[in-house]
Amino acid sequence: MKRENMVIVRHKQLAKNIYEITLSGHLVEEMNEPGQFVHVKVSSQANPLLRRPLSLCHINKKACECTIIYRKEGIGTTLLAEKRPGETVDVLGPLGNGFPLDAAAKGKRALLVGGGIGIPPLYELAKRLVEKGVAVTNVLGFQTKETVFYEQEFAAFGETYVATADGSYGAKGFVTDVINEREISFDVLYACGPKPMLKALEQAFPHKNVYLSLEERMGCGIGACFACVCRVPGSETAYKKVCSDGPVFKAGEVVL
Amino acid sequence: MNRLAVELPGLSLKNPIMPASGCFGFGREYARFYDLSVLGAIMIKATTLEPRFGNPTPRVAETPSGMLNAIGLQNPGLEKVMKEELPWLAQFDVPIIANIAGSTMEEYVEVAKHISQAPNVCALELNISCPNVKKGGIAFGTVPEIAAELTKLVKEVSEVPVYVKLSPNVTNIVEMAKAIEAAGADGLTMINTLLGMRIDVKTAKPILANQTGGLSGPAIKPIAIRMIYEVSQAVSLPIIGMGGIQSAEDVIEFFYAGASAVAIGTANFIDPFVCPNIIAELPTLLDKLGIGHISECTGRSWKKGERSVYCGA
């Protein structure tokens, strides 16, 4: 975990309010696990004050580059979207614990399920799983056609299904509808997306090996401020921190 | 001569910089970034008698140049802090200031009695901004008589000097400080966070699950400076200043207002290295200002006969 002013090498819009930024720096040497995130300060000023937790989408150690996909939404990501190649951003990371690659052995089947801006960390995961000989199926959910991104990129790793909530592209409905209708079988499920989606997956596959990546408002991102805690089942006081114990948890490990 | 060394009741500080309570946990996370022995002291996370889970999330909301938090004093409780956190911190050459909190006076007294016996706890910081459950939830720190009574009770049982952390959510902070001084406090720390709120424009509901939270960060610095300026002239207790410090210049400003040491809170979240960086920058800044020892800065904004000393480029 280090802090570095990383250089923006590429920055482009992928879909409505969805941007892809590629950063270069030594910090990439520290990046190993798919599902980890970095904490980005978009302004050198006090406003906005806090860093933004953004998940790593692609780690390219050879080129010393990493790619992040984010949604322009608040003041922080709006400022980030204005940054040009050649400029730098202050990055702290890599942070958190990523998806366990060991959970899927060579020759097994993994189902990767992403919802909206939760999709990006699954890209590096898919790449790594395919590299080790795991068969990957991807189910990607979006709100509407305008926000769809990375369908082709995921298709390069395995069968890929897209669903939109309004039916404007791909199957109409939620990712769980696609999994049921297509009767997709798998040994391990990895997911990242909005909490209702994660809950639905946890409930749908209670006896399967399921790993979920959570999103939560964060302060420090390193486990010190206790902003992003979640409860542990069956205890009044036990907790896990999303930033430093997660963001990836085994289903059932924390209360969603 | 160590021009940053500061002597305060119970505290021999190699420098006047310490992380503020609640922004540093019990130090474990930051020890992965640097050697905690470089710090002047550490104010550990508020400890209550029993473990507390705290509030539901969202617990933080960003504001212009600041942040709101409503963590809810989540902590592992007195026993675990005594058995695990304080012994772990003993590996570092740094005095610990134990922040204590409670829902009743009895709880404060019980925590103070035990935690002040830990070998590396050199002082207590009394968090009086908690709601008093026996008085309808009114914070101990908003009524001078109650704050004074609590100070007195804790002083009676504490083995180490007691610093009282003043809440800015009062009409007259000077009156509060005087009452606490009369009750026997050894020092003051100020200011705690300011009560604030944010509402989501889309949902029309408060962003924080707790509805309200404490405002911290650079946004509150001018308030902290004003309050320290007023209180330091009205009482003779040493003040550890805090509220939005981000740089060595901010530290000097707090000293000029009347502080004898400072704590850094929210800035740790943005830059984990902020405390060691400021410690490293202070001597150069003192040179630039033509000041020999940092203690000479205390109260310079109001002391009679003190001229501006700025002679740098």
UniProtKB/TrEMBL annotation, chain A:
One of its GO terms (biological process) is 'de novo' UMP biosynthetic process. Pathway: Pyrimidine metabolism; UMP biosynthesis via de novo pathway; orotate from (S)-dihydroorotate (NAD(+) route): step 1/1. Pfam families: DHODB_Fe-S_bind, NAD_binding_1. Its cofactor is [2Fe-2S] cluster; FAD. One of its GO terms (molecular function) is 2 iron, 2 sulfur cluster binding. FAD binds at residues 52-55, 69-71, 76-77. Binds 1 [2Fe-2S] cluster per subunit. Binds 1 FAD per subunit. Keywords: 2Fe-2S, Electron transport, FAD, Flavoprotein, Iron, Iron-sulfur, Metal-binding, Pyrimidine biosynthesis, Transport. Residues 1-101 form the FAD-binding FR-type domain. PROSITE patterns: FAD_FR (PS51384). It comes from the Bacteria. The keyword Metal-binding applies. [2Fe-2S] cluster binds at residues 220, 225, 228, 243. The keyword Protein biosynthesis does not apply. Heterotetramer of 2 PyrK and 2 PyrD type B subunits. Responsible for channeling the electrons from the oxidation of dihydroorotate from the FMN redox center in the PyrD type B subunit to the ultimate electron acceptor NAD(+). HAMAP family: DHODB_Fe_S_bind. PANTHER family: DIHYDROOROTATE DEHYDROGENASE B (NAD(+)), ELECTRON TRANSFER SUBUNIT, DIHYDROOROTATE DEHYDROGENASE B (NAD(+)), ELECTRON TRANSFER SUBUNIT-RELATED. Belongs to the PyrK family. This is Dihydroorotate dehydrogenase B (NAD(+)), electron transfer subunit. It comes from Parageobacillus thermantarcticus.
TrEMBL record, chain B:
It holds the Pfam family DHO_dh. Substrate binds at residues 45, 69-73, 127, 192-193. The keyword Oxidoreductase applies. GO terms for cellular component: cytoplasm. Residues 4-286 form the Dihydroorotate dehydrogenase catalytic domain. Binds 1 FMN per subunit. It catalyses: (S)-dihydroorotate + A = orotate + AH2; (S)-dihydroorotate + NAD(+) = orotate + NADH + H(+). It is found in: Cytoplasm. GO terms for molecular function: dihydroorotate dehydrogenase (NAD+) activity. FMN binds at residues 21, 45-46, 99, 127, 165, 191, 217, 243-244, 265-266. Pathway: Pyrimidine metabolism; UMP biosynthesis via de novo pathway; orotate from (S)-dihydroorotate (NAD(+) route): step 1/1. Its EC number is 1.3.-.-. The keyword Protein biosynthesis does not apply. It is an enzyme of class 1 (oxidoreductase). Its cofactor is FMN. The active site is at residue 130. Keywords: Cytoplasm, Flavoprotein, FMN, NAD, Oxidoreductase, Pyrimidine biosynthesis. Belongs to the dihydroorotate dehydrogenase family. Type 1 subfamily. Heterotetramer of 2 PyrK and 2 PyrD type B subunits. This is Dihydroorotate dehydrogenase. It comes from Parageobacillus thermantarcticus.
